[in-house]
Backbone:
């Protein structure tokens, strides 16, 4: 190739080279190789998904998440029950806010409904906002989860009066925060287990017993 | 999106009622009868004649205070639940010495009475109460329904 041709090639390719983005200074060297980081962190990378099944005291449940191709969002579905008397069915989105190869912080907003049976029965539309902080240590992932649950309670009073029947509605919001600490361990690619402690707080300021659970986690394939 | 689809999608959120209770607003006309020559303020309480279910079913559960300036006709409006309770009964006593207490130590002559408002449930009811039993409580005047 003649010197003139080399000069021409350089002149054509120089702008493209100049527009190339700089390399990521803090890449995640392994990505999310196991589903337990994704599940405990609350959000998966694009193309990934995770499903976890939970059993323990007082909580039983299932949770699934799948990455959406928009803005780093995940679609999340969750069914959770305390001793099968206080059941929450929720769906919504989650997103990683902080994402390094060591620490993942995610936020989650879910809406749905809840039904509680028994003497303290209640039902209504519900929401749950959650913060999840997970730290990757290879196959071992500790994670802290803080959830704030709200239920909109609508009570209807039907009153017979001399002037006819009246219907009065009153609304209130019940709040039930839950904190959990988990340690997840990757067993093999696409499969993990975790164990954790729960500190629920049903209907503050009343006291609630702490609990514990184990999770089976699958997913994570691209 | 059609209105029907919109309503259908919102129905789980807005159509979920936590509880539905039934009440009746009762206007009770009470006739207070006192022994000849006695006139003093009358105090007492409105009771659910029966409340609870099964082994926890109990008579005379107070839910509202009662007060009148003296014997005669008194009209009261009460909001009474219809779920888990039955009947409407008034217990009252006459405060002869004006101390606000029914038969405080040393006092033995303040008359009391118990009467059931009928019909119930209804928006209008009547009860006649004879204040003729000195120093008896509601449980002592209860005849078992």
Residues:
């Amino acid at each position: 190739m003649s010197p003139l041709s080399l000069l021409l090639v350089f002149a054509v390719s120089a702008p493209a080279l100049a527009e190339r983005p700089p390399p990521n200074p803090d890449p995640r060297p392994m990505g999310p190789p196991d589903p337990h980081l994704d599940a405990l962190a609350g959000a998966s990378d694009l193309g990934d998904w995770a499903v976890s099944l939970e059993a323990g005291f007082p909580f039983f449940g299932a949770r699934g998440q799948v990455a959406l191709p928009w803005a780093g969002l995940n679609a999340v579905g969750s069914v959770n029950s305390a001793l099968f008397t206080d059941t929450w069915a929720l769906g919504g989105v989650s997103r990683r806010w902080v994402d390094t190869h060591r620490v993942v912080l995610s936020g989650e907003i879910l809406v749905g409904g809840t039904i509680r049976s028994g003497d303290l029965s209640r039902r209504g539309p519900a929401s749950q906002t959650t913060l999840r902080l997970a730290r990757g240590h290879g196959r071992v992932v500790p994670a802290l989860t803080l959830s704030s649950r709200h239920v909109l309670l609508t009570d209807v009073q039907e009153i017979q009066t001399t002037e006819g029947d009246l219907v009065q509605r009153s609304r209130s919001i019940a709040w039930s925060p839950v904190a959990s600490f988990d340690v997840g361990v990757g067993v093999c690619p696409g499969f993990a287990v975790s164990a954790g402690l729960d500190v629920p707080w049903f209907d503050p300021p009343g006291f609630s017993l702490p609990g514990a659970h184990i999770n089976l986690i699958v997913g994570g394939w691209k | 999106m059609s209105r029907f689809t919109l309503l259908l999608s919102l129905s789980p959120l807005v159509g979920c009622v936590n509880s539905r209770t039934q009440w009746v607003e009762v206007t009770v006309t009470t006739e207070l009868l006192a022994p000849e020559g006695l006139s003093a303020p009358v105090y007492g309480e409105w009771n659910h004649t029966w409340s609870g279910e099964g082994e926890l079913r109990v008579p005379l559960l107070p839910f509202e205070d009662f007060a009148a300036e003296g014997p005669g006709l008194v009209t009261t409006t009460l909001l009474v639940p219809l779920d888990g309770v039955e009947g409407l009964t008034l217990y009252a006593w006459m405060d002869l010495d004006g101390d606000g207490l029914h038969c405080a130590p040393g006092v033995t002559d303040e008359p009391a009475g118990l009467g059931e408002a009928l019909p119930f449930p209804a928006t209008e009811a009547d009860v006649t109460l004879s204040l003729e039993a000195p120093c008896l409580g509601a449980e002592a005047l209860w005849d078992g329904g």
Remarks:
- The beta strands of chain B are 19-33, 42-51, 58-68, 72-81, 85-94, 111-116, 124-130, 133-134.
- Chain B touches chain A at residues 12-14, 16-25, 27, 79, 121, 123-124 (CB under 8 Å).
